[in-house]
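Hey L., structure's done. Input below.
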Amino acid sequence: MFLMDLMCAILLLYCDLTLFSIGNYFVLENILFFALSKLK
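Output:
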């Protein structure tokens, strides 16, 4: 039972980190796109 809870906790943490990374990537991409459009 404890092992199942541990697995779920790790899975949730991993999903949160992945979503956070994806979110940061999109933010960086938008900033770069905005900067490039300003330079043109």
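The mean pLDDT is 89. The radius of gyration is 17 Å.

-- N.
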